Amino acid sequence: MTETIRIEPLTRDAFAPFGDVLDASGDPDRIINQGLCGRYHDRARMDFGPGGRAGISIFKAEARALPYQLDMVERHPDGSQAFVPMSMDPFLVIVAPDDGGVPGRPRAFVTAAGQGINLLRNTWHGVLTPLAAPGIFAVIDRIGGTPNLEEYWLTTPITVAPNP
Q1: φ, ψ for residue 144 (rounded to 5)?
Q2: What residues make up the domain containing 149?
Q3: Most buried of 28, 53, 87, 102, CB within 10 angstroms?
Q4: Measured distance CA(129)–CA(24) in Å, rounded
Q5: For residue 161, with 0-12 CB atoms within 10 Å meaning exposed, 13-18 middle and 19 or more buried, which class applies?
Q6: Tens digit of pLDDT for each residue in 139-163?
Q7: What total number of domains does the chain contain?
């Protein structure tokens, strides 16, 4: 029997064990640029590990439909990874706690328009899953000469479904 997990809205508190929510909610931390720009300062715990540096790449991922079949998660042991959508479309974020070196029970979140995320270093997560085209993201992550990817294939896929 296939397990089903329900999608939750993305909130700072619910997502905190896995990473950071990137958005412009609340009042800005400071006003800059001759009073015409609000700065939401230092919103992500970026970590690029030894021997790495920050890099910005552009990803273009195919849009996916719900319900979604989750069959693999991955993690990056040497660096955090931030996803900033280049459109105002929501996307699906799947994360799982570590359970002795393997992923525990996954959780699924859906972003609101204008939200991005930063996954903490070594956080199990699903692949980039836009829910609408064009699926273009700026991705800030570790660039380095050592491998920074571990995949885990689920023995039984999990269905990710919207809340009724």
Answers
A1: -170, 175
A2: 3-161
A3: 87
A4: 22
A5: middle
A6: 999 999 888 999 999 999 999 999 8
A7: 1
